C-alpha cells in the first residue's frame, strides 16, 4: 500500500512537470509591430493601418477621401526621433497623436487641416509612434497628454 501511494505521488509530480514544461514553452504571441491590428486609446479601439516603411510613411493618408471614426493609421518608426507631419495632399482634417517609446501620449495636434499645408506639426520631444485619427477624436474622447495607449495584436 505504501509503495502504491509513493508511485501515485511520483506519477502526479511527473504529470505536473510535464504540464508545466508545455505551458512555459508555449509560443509567445508575436509582438512585432507588423502584427498590430488595433490601438486602444482613450477607451476606444481603433482599427489601424500600419505605416512601417519610408514609402508608406511618406504616403500616409494622403489622397484618401475619408477615414471612419473607428479607423486610423499608426506610424511606427525604428527609433525614437523628432518626427513632424504635414497635410500634403490630404482631403480631410485629422487629429495627430504622438507617442513615446512607452506608448504614452506626448503631443496632440487637434484638427490638422489640409488648407494649412505646408505648415508642419510635431512635438519638441522624441516620439516613436504617431497615430492619425479623424478630426475631433481627441476632443470627443477627452484624450490628454500623458494618457497611455495599448497595442492589440
TrEMBL record:
Keyword vocabulary terms for this entry? Membrane, Transmembrane, Transmembrane helix
Q: Which domain of life is it from?
A: Bacteria
Q: Which residues cross the membrane?
A: 6-24
Fetch the InterPro entries from UniProt: DUF192, Saro_0823-like_sf
| One matching Pfam family | DUF192
Q: What's this protein's name?
A: DUF192 domain-containing protein
Amino acid at each position: 500500500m505504501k509503495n502504491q501511494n509513493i508511485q501515485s505521488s511520483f506519477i502526479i509530480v511527473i504529470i505536473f512537470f510535464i504540464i508545466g514544461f508545455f505551458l512555459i514553452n508555449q509560443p509567445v504571441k508575436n509582438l512585432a509591430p507588423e502584427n498590430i491590428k488595433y490601438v486602444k486609446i482613450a477607451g476606444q479601439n481603433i482599427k489601424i493601418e500600419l505605416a512601417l516603411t519610408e514609402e508608406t510613411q511618406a504616403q500616409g493618408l494622403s489622397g484618401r477621401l475619408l477615414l471612419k471614426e473607428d479607423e486610423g493609421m499608426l506610424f511606427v518608426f525604428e527609433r525614437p526621433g523628432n518626427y513632424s507631419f504635414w497635410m500634403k495632399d490630404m482631403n480631410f482634417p485629422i487629429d495627430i497623436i504622438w507617442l513615446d517609446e512607452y506608448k504614452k501620449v506626448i503631443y496632440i495636434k487637434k484638427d490638422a487641416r489640409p488648407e494649412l499645408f505646408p505648415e508642419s506639426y510635431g512635438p519638441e520631444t522624441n516620439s516613436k509612434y504617431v497615430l492619425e485619427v479623424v478630426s475631433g477624436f481627441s476632443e470627443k474622447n477627452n484624450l490628454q497628454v500623458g494618457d497611455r495607449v495599448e497595442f492589440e495584436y
